[in-house]
Amino acid sequence: MASFLYLLVGYPGSGKTTVSKLIHDKTGAVHLWADQIRKERFIKPNYGHAENTELYNYMNEETARLLSSGQSVIFDTNFNFFADRQRLRSIAKKNDAKTAIIWVKAPLAIAKKRATSQAHNQDSRVLGNMSDLDFERLSGHLEEPRPEENPIIVDGTVNNENLIGF
User: d(Cα 19, Cα 92) in Å, to the nearest integer?
Assistant: First the structure.
């Protein structure tokens, strides 16, 4: 069976990590969770360019390593830029893995509330509440998946325990 690389797209707070955990439970794919890795690697995350570069270089290398060993990977972050999704598709292709784009959609207001004020209610918010400014910056730059990316659209406002196809 071919290995898969699952790339998550959506606003902060849309439900990407919840969906990632469900995919992990159903497929056994390794869950590379950017927030958790950031928390482990940086004492006081600052989300600056140097930190982001270090984080994503590490995650890209780990993704390549896992895919090359035949394991599937869930790359759990805001894959909001087409160019970033293309970069990871290239890593998957070099390792004979298939890529699936999972677009977790939730209304902006719901995602913002989850991301900026409800960290205490969610085990998926390991870095605590996001600032309004950070939320606006990240959500304002979402490049929706293009039709040719064949995204799997998941409703981030409902219980997705029965994800079809996983």
Answer: 20
Query: Residue 54 belongs to a domain with what CATH number?
Result: 3.40.50.300
Query: What type of residue is 164?
Result: I
Judging by beta carbons within 10 Å of its beta carbon (0-12, 13-18, 19+), is residue 123 exposed, middle or buried? exposed
Kindly report the length of the chain: 166
pLDDT single digits (tens) 22-65: 999 999 999 998 888 988 999 887 777 898 899 999 999 999 99
Which residue blocks in the chain are alpha helix, DSSP H? 16-27, 34-41, 49-68, 82-94, 108-117, 132-139
> End-to-end CA distance of the chain, in Å?
14
Task: Give the contacts of 22 (CB within 8 A, at least 6 positions apart).
Answer: 160, 161, 163, 166
Domain that includes residue 48, residue range:
4-155
Burial of 85 (C-beta count, 10 Å sphere; 0-12/13-18/19+): buried
* CA dist list (Å): 62 to 28, 75, 113: 16, 10, 32
Q: Residue 67 and residue 147: Cα distance in Å, rounded?
A: 25
Structural domain includes residue 51: yes
55 touches 76 (CB < 8 A): no
